[in-house]
Amino acid sequence: xxxxxxxxxxxxxxxxxxxxxxxxxxxxxxxxxxxxxxxxxxxxxxxxxxxxxxxxxxxxxxxxxxxxxx
Length: 70
Known about the structure:
Layout: H1 2-25, H2 31-57
Transmembrane segments: 36-55
Protein name: DUF2909 family protein
Keywords: Membrane, Transmembrane, Transmembrane helix
């Protein structure tokens, strides 16, 4: 499960970097900037939902901080 999360985070960072590249290169006029930012948002939502699903299915274990434990 860790590898899936890491790969998704790397795709998110790549998409963000690509959007920045097209923003600078096209001076804000490129449609590629919007496309890559949309991909980043979709990947972020999918990662969030995947983490929730993995926690509910027991694939990953959640831990609360030590100051919240009784």
